Structure formats: structure tokens, C-alpha cells
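Q: I'm building a small set of examples for a reading group on sequence design. Run inverse folding on the following structure and report the sequence directly after it, with nothing in between.
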């Protein structure tokens, strides 16, 4: 026997379309409910009809037993086929349409029966209960077949039981009533089934529109592919519902935002707290490729609304790119400075050559000493006050760049920074961003000057950078620390508005602060406080200034 072809197997199974499958399932459920409801209704209906038949038989028996003539005839005459008891019983039977009305004496002998030959014989079922004075209603089987019966005692004027009356209602009539009720019940069930079929069709149409008529297997495959894609891509994905609650996070989003599964189902404000990242993801800040800072990470965010009122936001980590871009900017600045130095060096060499050719040797020596002394003084000034090599090297380099840009970079006399920094790289970021920001602010201004001050108070580091630029209006002094906000033209590699935000984030991460005020005499003054920035000293720090310490050592 050849195997069944795949196409035939599909035809014999459930249809592939979601609309058809849902409709068939809904119809099956509606039909099952209709059949179940019909059965549950018929079961008590049958019992109810049986109960009504037994009550009717008992009522007829009670009415018959209250006939004084029947009691008198039983006591005074023998049972006969044409006797008054038989005639009265038949009259009552015909009037009530009962199956039989049997009157018996105290011995259980029949005085009436639908079959005259049974008169004078004993009843086929036990008459013990009615002859004992009890009323009985039951469904039983006798000589006339199965019937609903009612039996009552027959009493004389003194209340003595002298016999009993048994009345039967034919059971076939009860069944006929039950059967006659079924068509009407089926009509109601058919109507309910039709309404259920219509509702199933409407639901199936809605499911068809929502699932775009895909098969369940296709939907399952799409879900599997989505899970693999979401957890495999190197971009963060955050899905939000119409209320702004997080309903999906992939692995990269958890890493970039620093949150876990506990954030699912919560609002962005609850999961992330206040800040630009929350505003961007929530759509309160609009645009494309929006920058946000989360911890030490620089994120590029895009948000796309969905048809159900929610949104999907993507996150890209641009921390390394921003760092490379800033390094590139610094490299360009150094290259420009080197070019300027090369040009200046050529001029100085030409001047020196001219002095030598003119045999002005003393002037040549003074000129060389002046040039070399300026650079040496700057380096010595920095290293004398700043003992951390990274910070010192940074400021020496910034001083060279500033000089070539026509800006005087001064190190405050109050500066004193020992070589005990816990996070020197973090302080390099802070100092570098503030000095670069100050150099940009004073560019093109007359008598441009930038002053940097780094000092310690116990284990706390305090950094002040002042400039003689135009300053920052009071209403913008908080905005300058906002991610993405800047008054400068963006560089070629990306966007501005990151440096000062990183400065504040680094300070706040260590429990410190970063603020900007107006400098004395005009310009801006940035103040950064970093608590617990230094390690515990092995010895108590000297109370004298660095210059005084050097003088004492030289005198020794």
C-alpha cells in the first residue's frame, strides 16, 4: 500500500489558515455547549415530569378515598364486576384519564380494576404501606405495565383503615410529554448554536485581521525567529505598551541600561528614574539618533511608534566611538599645534641664524634661554603642583595647545594634587573636558585666559576651571550638563553635548557634584567636587605649600 501523499494528508487534517481553524474550533465549542445544555435541561425535565405524574396519581387516589359511598360498599357488599365500587372507580378513571383506579379491602383484594377478571383477586404489589395508613407515590411496574402510582389508605368514619386506593398514570404518557418538549428545546438550542456560529465567525474575522491571516505554524516560527533575532543582535531593543510600560527587553538593552527582568511591566520612570534617557525612550524628546548617557555609556536612541499605541526603541552603544572621536579631535588639535610649533620653530631658527650671522652672540644666547625657559617653566610649574603623572601630562599638553591657540593656560597657585588618586583616568576625563570646554569658550576673545585649580581637602578633590569667555547665562547653567545640549557646531564624527554631561555623571557616581557659576571678573567657572577621590595617606600631608617645601629642601 503506497503512503499517503503530503498534499492529501494536509487536506485530511485541519486547515492551515488561522481564520478557518479558529472558526472550526469555535463552532465545535458552540455545538458542544448546545448539546450539553440540552442534555442538562432534559435530565431534570424527565424527573420533573415523573414527579408531576406521581403527584397527580396521588391526588386522584386521595380524591377517590374521600368518597363515603366506596367505604360503605366495601364494608357491606362483596366485590363484583358490576358493583357500585367498580362503577365509581371506572367513572373516576375515565374522568381523570388515569390508567387505572384500583380499590382494595384490608386484605389486599381488588374491588375494582380496568380488567374485570382481576376483581376479587389480590393485588400484584405489596399493599402493606397504604394499609398501614401511609401514603405512597412511586414509579413501579404492575400487571398493567410501568406507571406512576399513588396509593392512599381508605378509612371509615372512625378513621380505621378498611382498605386502600391505588391510582396509576401510564408512563408512556409521561414519556410522550418529554418527547413533545424536545422539538421546542432543539429549536432553542439551534438558535443558540446559530448565534454562537455568528459570534465565532466575527471572532475569527477579528483574529484573521490581527494575525494577518498567518497560519499558527507561521506565527510560531515568527516568534522563534524574533526571539533569536532580539537576543542575537548587538543593539538594545526596548518595547513599550500604550501606557508606557516596558513589555520587552533584549539582552543588549539589559546590559546597556543596567536593568533586568524586574523592569518588565513597570513604567520607564520607575525602571530607569528621571533623566534624558527616560525622556528619549518615552518620546518626550523627539528626533532621530538622539544621544543619551546612561552611567558611563553614550547611547544613540531611535524610537518608532507601533500600531497599537506603543513604541519600540533601539539603543546603540557609541561610548567607544565617542571616545575615538574625541581622541581624533585631540589628535587634530595636536597636529595643528605641531604645525604651528613647526612654523614658530622655523621662525625662531631663522631669528637665531640671523643673530649668529650678525655676530650678536650674547643676544642669541639670551634668545635661546628665553625660548627654552618658557617651556621648561610651564612643565616645572605643572609637575611641582600636580604629582599624578597622568594629570600633569594632560595639563602640560593642554598648555601647549592653548599657547598655540593664543590662550594663556594658568595653573592656580592654590593647586596641590598628590599622587594618591583612586581613579586617575576618571579625573583625566573631567579635567580634559573642562579645559577643552574653556578653551573653546575663550577662542577669538581678547586677552583669552583659562585658569585651572586642583586641590584636596582631606580625601576630597576639588577642581575649578575659570575662563574669561562670555560666560553662561543663569537660565542655561543646568542645561549645559544635559546630554545632547550644546551651543557649538557638531564635529564631523558625531554630535556635541556629551562632555559636560559625562563630567557631572562621573562626579555624581562618586557622590560629588558639578556646577557652573559666574567667574570673578566675568566668564564661567566650573566647580567639580569628588569625595573619596584619594587613598588614605601613609603620613600626614605637609602643611606648607609645595614651593615652600622645595625651598626648605634646597636650603638643607
Amino acid at each position: 500500500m503506497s503512503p499517503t501523499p503530503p498534499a492529501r494528508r494536509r487536506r485530511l487534517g485541519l486547515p492551515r489558515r488561522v481564520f478557518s481553524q479558529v472558526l472550526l474550533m469555535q463552532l465545535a465549542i458552540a455545538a458542544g455547549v448546545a448539546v450539553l445544555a440540552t442534555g442538562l435541561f432534559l435530565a431534570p425535565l424527565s424527573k420533573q415530569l415523573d414527579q408531576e405524574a406521581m403527584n397527580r396519581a396521588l391526588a386522584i387516589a386521595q380524591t377517590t378515598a374521600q368518597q363515603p359511598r366506596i367505604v360503605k360498599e366495601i364494608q357491606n357488599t362483596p366485590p363484583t364486576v358490576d358493583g357500585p365500587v367498580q362503577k365509581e372507580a371506572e367513572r373516576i378513571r375515565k374522568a381523570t384519564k388515569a390508567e387505572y383506579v384500583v380499590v382494595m379491602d384490608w386484605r389486599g383484594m381488588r374491588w375494582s380494576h380496568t380488567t374485570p377478571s382481576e376483581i376479587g383477586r389480590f393485588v400484584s404489589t405489596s399493599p402493606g404501606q397504604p394499609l398501614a395508613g401511609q401514603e405512597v407515590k412511586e414509579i413501579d411496574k404492575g400487571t398493567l405495565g410501568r406507571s406512576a402510582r399513588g396509593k392512599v389508605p381508605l378509612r371509615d368514619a372512625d378513621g380505621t383503615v378498611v382498605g386502600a386506593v391505588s391510582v396509576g398514570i401510564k408512563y408512556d404518557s409521561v414519556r410522550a410529554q418529554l418527547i413533545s418538549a424536545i422539538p421546542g428545546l432543539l429549536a432553542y438550542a439551534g438558535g443558540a448554536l446559530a448565534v454562537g456560529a455568528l459570534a465565532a465567525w466575527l471572532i475569527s474575522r477579528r483574529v484573521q485581521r490581527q494575525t494577518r491571516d498567518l497560519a499558527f505554524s507561521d506565527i510560531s516560527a515568527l516568534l522563534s525567529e524574533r526571539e533569536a533575532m532580539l537576543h542575537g543582535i548587538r543593539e538594545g531593543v526596548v518595547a513599550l505598551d500604550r501606557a508606557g510600560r516596558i513589555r520587552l527587553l533584549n539582552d543588549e538593552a539589559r546590559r546597556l541600561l543596567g536593568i533586568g527582568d524586574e523592569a518588565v511591566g513597570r513604567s520607564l520612570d520607575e525602571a530607569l528614574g528621571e533623566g534624558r534617557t527616560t525622556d528619549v525612550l518615552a518620546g518626550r524628546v523627539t528626533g532621530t539618533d538622539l544621544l543619551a548617557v546612561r552611567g558611563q555609556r553614550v547611547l544613540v536612541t531611535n524610537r518608532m511608534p507601533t500600531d497599537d499605541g506603543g513604541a519600540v526603541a533601539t539603543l546603540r552603544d557609541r561610548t567607544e566611538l565617542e571616545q575615538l572621536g574625541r581622541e581624533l579631535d585631540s589628535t587634530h588639535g595636536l597636529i595643528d599645534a605641531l604645525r604651528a610649533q613647526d612654523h614658530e620653530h622655523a621662525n625662531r631658527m631663522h631669528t637665531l641664524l640671523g643673530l649668529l650671522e650678525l655676530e650678536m652672540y650674547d643676544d642669541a644666547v639670551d634668545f635661546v634661554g628665553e625660548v627654552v625657559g618658557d617651556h621648561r617653566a610651564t612643565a616645572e610649574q605643572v609637575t611641582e603642583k600636580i604629582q599624578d603623572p597622568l594629570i600633569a601630562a594632560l595639563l602640560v599638553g593642554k598648555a601647549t595647545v592653548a599657547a598655540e591657540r593664543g590662550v594663556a593656560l594658568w595653573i592656580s597657585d592654590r593647586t596641590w594634587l598628590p599622587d594618591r588618586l583612586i581613579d586617575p583616568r576618571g579625573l583625566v576625563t573631567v579635567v580634559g573636558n573642562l579645559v577643552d570646554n574653556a578653551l573653546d569658550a575663550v577662542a577669538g576673545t581678547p586677552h583669552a585666559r583659562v585658569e585651572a585649580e586642583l586641590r584636596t581637602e582631606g580625601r576630597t578633590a576639588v577642581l575649578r576651571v575659570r575662563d574669561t569667555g562670555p560666560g553662561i547665562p543663569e537660565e542655561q547653567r543646568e542645561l549645559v550638563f544635559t546630554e545632547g545640549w550644546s551651543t557649538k557646531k557638531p564635529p564631523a564624527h558625531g554630535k556635541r553635548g556629551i562632555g559636560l554631561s559625562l563630567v557631572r555623571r562621573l562626579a555624581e557616581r562618586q557622590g560629588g557634584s558639578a556646577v557652573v557659576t559666574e567667574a570673578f571678573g566675568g566668564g564661567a567657572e566650573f566647580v567639580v567636587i569628588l569625595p573619596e577621590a584619594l587613598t588614605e595617606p601613609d603620613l600626614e600631608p605637609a602643611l606648607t605649600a609645595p614651593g615652600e617645601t622645595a625651598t626648605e629642601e634646597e636650603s638643607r
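Confidence is low (pLDDT under 50) at residues 1-12, 490-496, 539-556.
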